[in-house]
Amino acid sequence: MKIWPDCIPCILKMSLGVARVVMKDEEQVRRFMEEVLELKYFDGDNWKVTSPEVIKDVWLKMIKFTGEADPLKEIKNEQNKRALAIYPTAKQLVLKSQDPLLEAIRFAIAANSIDAMTDVKGGGPEEVIKKWYKLEIDSKNFNGLKERVRKARSVVYLGDNCGEIVFDRLLIEVLLKIHHPEVTFITRTLPIMNDATLQDVLSIGIGEIAQVVENGVREPLPGTFLKGINSELKTLIEKSDLVISKGGGNYDSLTEEEKIKGKTSFLLLAKCYPYCHLHQVSLGDPIIHNF
Fold first, then answer.
1. Are the C-beta atoms of residues 214 and 187 closer than 8 Å to each other?
2. Would you say 259 and 235 are in contact if contact means Cβ atoms under 8 Å apart?
3. Between the CA atoms of 10, 13, 14 and 19, what dihedral angle is there, to the nearest 10 degrees?
4. What is the DSSP letter of 260?
């Protein structure tokens, strides 16, 4: 998905929000934003680009100004820690439900709310779970994904954010329990925002239940383009029966890829007008898009 007008203020707001967390003072924040605004994407004449490509260049400036390759590392660790506190209760609810796959998908999509500048909030696990449990999953799209899962012998799972990956683990556990596919979980190679790297994913236990590999992209890109990943992973994706793709960054980039049509299912929240408009849902609603 190419950028919409809505993407410009959204990216700038994210940039400013992160800068105020990781930079020393307002003068540094101001100089950072001045350089961000000089990027070609913000002159109103560059619409044939995706949000992940824009954010990559913003993040390179973030690294330049902070001197840190992973400026949100502590926040990512805390997001995983808080999500792990919710995980046991969520798993119990999922496994005891009438349709564990439906409930695991509900939690996996709800956890997409743990974005670059948000966290798992609430007075305790019960409050967070109660909020997430209210999300209504579209039955037609769920059944389409359920049929894909039933037929799949091999699954490639493209991860997104820290915190969120704890509930990706729960969904993978349910997939393995019900249908026993071979699952490969894909992480970012380089840190970008609060996206999960190999170390982040291994730290919450996904490596104990699935193969975990990096995407091989040698730049901080919060998305996945087939032309940018290593050849082994590209072959793995092309040969897989099902690709489960999490989050907006992967959605924005992979919906540009014709080769994965017919076997890719995107799981994300409708966080902005473009997603709401394209999928005819309300802000904050879950999206299952069987591409």
1. yes
2. no
3. 160
4. G
Backbone angles phi and psi of 268, in degrees to 5: -165, 170
Which residues of the chain are modeled with pLDDT < 70? 116-126
Helix axes 139-151, 100-110, angle to 10 degrees: 110
DSSP 218: -
pLDDT digits (tens, 9 = 90+) for 9-44: 999 999 999 999 999 899 999 999 999 999 999 998
DSSP tag of 197: B
pLDDT at position 106 is: 97
pLDDT at residue 44, as a whole number: 87
* pLDDT number for residue 122: 47
- 170-to-2, 173, 209 alpha-carbon distances in Å: 31, 5, 10
Q: Identify the CA nearest to 82 among candidates 166, 159, 140.
A: 166
Exposed/middle/buried for residue 110 (C-beta within 10 Å: 0-12, 13-18, 19+): buried
Distance CA 168, CA 126 (A): 19
Number of neighbouring beta carbons within 10 Å of residue 244: 27
Nearest alpha-carbon partner for 36 in 54, 51, 21: 54
What pLDDT score does 118 carry?
A: 54
d(CA 254, CA 274) in angstroms, rounded, equals: 16
- Determine if the pTM surpasses 0.90: yes
